[in-house]
Design a protein that fits this description.
InterPro entries: P-loop_NTPase, Therm_gnt_kin. By secondary structure, this protein is mainly α. Helices cover 47% and strands 10% of the residues. Helix 1 crosses helix 7.
């Protein structure tokens, strides 16, 4: 989980490969209307996100027996509660990156619908993990391989 540009896709793909589980890109679950809205620089509302979160929750529930890695901004505690309803043992990895680095990443990204102009709205909506949530916050302002190693350690996996 994390805001756009935090490295969710890069870390998620490598983490899934190292764990030997299926990976799903959270952006692929967005309905076309959400993508159009974000492409136009309009932040999503909670109502816009609800069907998207429900699709991700269904994917999580369908992978509960074998595990999986799915990326999702999951900005608010309530969004994560919605996901945990379908996947009670959900382990969240919050990727933390300073705003300036996020902006640099977003401005250098090609072919993605999420414009850098929406970064501040995401940062304003972001509610960091709380003590009642199973997961870990990870400094993702470093090489992805280092982030994955820390993620594996947080999951209790020593080497893969």
């Amino acid at each position: 989980m994390g805001v756009s540009g935090s490295g969710k896709t890069t870390v998620g793909e490598e983490l899934a490969a190292r764990l030997g589980v299926e990976y799903a890109e959270g952006d692929d679950f967005h309905p076309a209307a959400n993508v159009a809205k974000m492409s136009a620089g309009i932040p999503l509302t909670d109502a816009d996100r609800a069907p998207w979160l429900d699709l991700i929750a269904a994917w999580l529930a369908g992978h509960a027996d074998r595990g999986g890695v799915v990326t999702c901004s999951a900005l608010k505690h309530g969004y994560r509660d919605r996901l945990r309803t379908a996947a009670p043992h959900l382990f969240l990895l919050e990727l933390e990156v300073p705003r300036d680095e996020l902006l640099r990443r977003l401005n250098s990204r090609v072919g993605h619908f999420m414009p850098a102009s929406l970064l501040d709205s995401q940062l304003a909506a972001l509610e960091p993990l709380t003590a009642d949530e199973i997961g870990a916050s990870i400094d993702a302002d470093r090489p992805p391989g280092d982030v994955v190693v820390e993620a594996l350690a947080a999951l209790g996996v020593t080497s893969r």
